[in-house]
Amino acid sequence: MRRDSRLSGMLHVLLHMAEHHAPVTSQTLAKAMGTNPVVIRRVMAGLREQGYVRSEKGHGGGWTLARDLAEITLRDIYDAIGCPSLLAIGNRTESPDCLVEQAVNAALDTAFQDAQALLLARLGDVTLAMLSADFHARLAARPAALRTEIDHVH
Predict the structure, then answer these.
(1) Which domains does the chain have, with CATH numbers?
(2) Cα(109)–Cα(103) distance, rounded to whole angstroms?
(3) Burial class of residue 60 (count of CB atoms within 10 Å of its CB; 0-12, 13-18, 19+)
(4) Which domain of life is it from (predicted)?
(5) What is the reported pLDDT for 3?
(6) What per-residue confidence (pLDDT) applies to 153?
């Protein structure tokens, strides 16, 4: 199964936006993420509808954060991008009348639900402000000559 990296990618975009004190264009964000500006605009539109970002058109326009980083959790962004599947494994469904398959699936369903509840709770405990603080601590720990991480969006 292919990994879904939309949550990670969108968190990356939002943290880069937080480092800017002016609107950031879809083109600039797409370049940083190695994708197409249309992809950025599509995902950002969903975040705009949820009130996490805003957009400004015209010269000097682009995307800005609409809320303080401390008010946005990873769970908020997960929900805003459509709740992608958290687990890459699932139940076998080829023989629904098979009692063995039913027993196996019942046990796995419980485990999957428990794991998902735990992960969603953890995502709700982490804010973008916490991620930003971690980024800044990592940046400060680097030698000055290597502190170019944020430059790939400029």
Answers:
(1) 6-153 (1.10.10.10)
(2) 10
(3) exposed
(4) Bacteria
(5) 79
(6) 43
The one-letter amino acid at 20 = H
Give the HSE-up count for residue 145: Cα atoms under 13 Å, Cβ half-sphere.
Answer: 0
Distance, CA of 42 to CA of 37 (rounded, Å): 9
Going by pLDDT thresholds of 50, 70 and 90, the confidence category of residue 99 is: very high
Question: Given the structure tokens 């804010």, which residue do they identify?
Answer: 127
- The whole-number average pLDDT for the span 69-73 is 97
Q: How far does CA 23 lie from the centroid of its chain?
A: 19
Q: Span 68-75, mean pLDDT? A: 97
In angstroms and rounded to an integer, the radius of gyration of the C-alpha atoms of the chain is 19
**What are the start-end ranges of the E strands in the chain?**
53-56, 62-65
> What's residue 154's pLDDT?
41
Instruction: Write the CA distances from 11 to 5, 58, 72, 97, 126, integer angstroms.
Output: 10, 25, 10, 43, 12
Question: Angle, nearest 10°, between helix axes 6-18 and 128-141?
Answer: 70
pTM confidence score: 0.83
Structure tokens at 31: 């370049």
CB 77 within 8 A of CB 120: no
